[in-house]
Amino acid sequence: MEFDFNNPFGSITRLLTDLLLGLGLDQPLVAFILAVVGAGILAGATLTTAGVFNIWLERKVGARFQDRLGPNRVGPFGLFQGIADAIKLVLKEDITPLGADKVVFNIAPLLAVMSVVGLWAVVPFAPQLIGADLNVGVLYVVAIGGVGTLSVIMAGWSSNNKYALLGALRTVAMLISFEIPMVLVLLVPTMLAGSMGMVAIVDGQDVWYLLMAPVAALVFFISSLAEVGRTPFDLIEAESEIVAGYNIEYSGMKFGMFMVAEFFHSFTIGALFTVLFLGGWRGPGSETFPLLGLVYFIAKTFFMYFVVMWVRYTFPRVRIDQVMALNWKFLTPLALVIVMTTAVVDKLALEQALPRTPVHLVLNIALILLTILALQAYARALRRKVEGLPEPEAGEVAGAAIGPG
C-alpha cells in the first residue's frame, strides 16, 4: 500500500489496520486496539503539553509581564522546570485528613483531569484527524465540562474541612452560573453551521464566525475564563478569605493534578475558541496539505492561550458579588439577546438571499452600540443612587444626552 501524503493521517490508520489484520486479529479487536492507541496518544500528547510545556510557557510569559526572568535554572531556558516540579510533587507526602471520605477524596483530582482530557476527544486538529466526530459535539463539550464542577464539590465535601466546603460551594455557584451564558452563545456557531458537530462547524467557516458573531465570541471567552477560574475570576484560590478553597487539604501529586487541570483547561479554551470562532484548522492550503492544517490549528490555539495569559497578568481579581452581578445582570441577558437576534436575522438573510456575513456583522455592531448605551444609562443611574440625587425627568435625560450648547 502506498503512502498518501495528501491524506497522511488516513494512510497511517490504514497501515496500522493492515498490519494488525495481517497478524490474524479480528476486525472488532483491531478497531478496539486502534481506539485505545489513539486515545493514549491523544491523552499523552495533550497532558505532556499542558503539564510540562504550558506551565513553563505561562511562568515565562508571566515573568515577562512582571519584569522578571522566570524559570532559567533547570535545563536550557528553564525548559525542564516542569519536570522538576513534577518530581517534587511525587516525592511529597500524600496526606489524607482524618474523617475524610477517602474514596471520594481520591477520585476528585482524577475527575478534574479527566474532564479536561475528555474535551479533546471531539476537537478536530486537522482534516481526518479527530478522536470522535460526534454529531452532537457541542453538547458533548458542555456535558464533559460539567464533570469538572462535580470534582470541585466532591473535593470540598470529602475533605471534612469547613473552609474547603465553603470554597467548593462558592466555586460551584460561580461555575454553574457562568455555564448559562456560555451554553447560550454556543448556540450561535451551531445555528450558523446548521450542526452541533465540531467538524461541521469548522467546515462551515468559509468566513470565521468571529467576524460574523464577535459579541457571541466575547461572551464565550469571558464565560470560559470564569469556568476555569482564571484571573479576574480566580475566586477559587481565595487565600485571604477562606485559606485556599476546595483543594486546601490536598498535597503532593493530588494537588498537582488540580493544578495541571487548571493549566490544561486554560489551553483548552484556546482550542475550543479556535474551533468555534477561528475556523479551526482551516487556512490557505490546509485542505490540500492536512499537516499544514495542524500547524494552523496549533498556531491559533497558542495565540488564544497567550490572550488568556495576557488577561491573567493584566486584570486584578474581583469580588464574588461583582462576578455574580456580571453574569446575571450583563452576560446572561446579553447572551439571550444574541441568540434570539442571530436566529431571526439568519433566517431572514437566508429567505431574502442576502449575504450572511455583512448582515450578521451589522447586527453585532448594533448590539455593541446598544450595549454601550445601556451600560452608560446604568452607570448614570448608579452614580445618582450613590450620590443621593433624584431620578431625572424625561426632559433632563434628553438634555443630558444632547449636552450643553
The number of distinct helices, counting runs of at least 4 residues, comes to: 15
How many independent structural domains? 2
Helix content: over 70%
Q: Nearest-angstrom radius of gyration? A: 24 Å
pLDDT averaged over residues: 83
Low-confidence stretches: 397-405
What structural category characterises the helix and strand content?
mainly alpha
Fraction of residues in β-strands: under 5%
Can you lay out the helices and strands and say which pair or pack?
Layout: H1 8-22, H2 27-65, H3 81-91, H4 102-119, H5 137-158, H6 162-193, H7 198-203, H8 209-212, H9 214-228, H10 239-242, H11 252-277, H12 290-312, H13 320-351, H14 356-387, H15 394-402
What report would you give on this structure?
The structure is a single chain. With 405 residues, the protein is mainly α. The chain folds into two domains: 1-91, no CATH class; 99-354, no CATH class. It is built from 15 helices and no strands. Helix 1 (8-22) packs across helix 2 (27-65) and helix 3 crosses helix 11.
Task: Offer a concise description of the structure.
With 405 residues, the chain is mainly α. It has helices at residues 8-22, 27-65, 81-91, 102-119, 137-158, 162-193, 198-203, 209-212, 214-228, 239-242, 252-277, 290-312, 320-351, 356-387, 394-402. It has two domains: 1-91, no CATH class; 99-354, no CATH class.
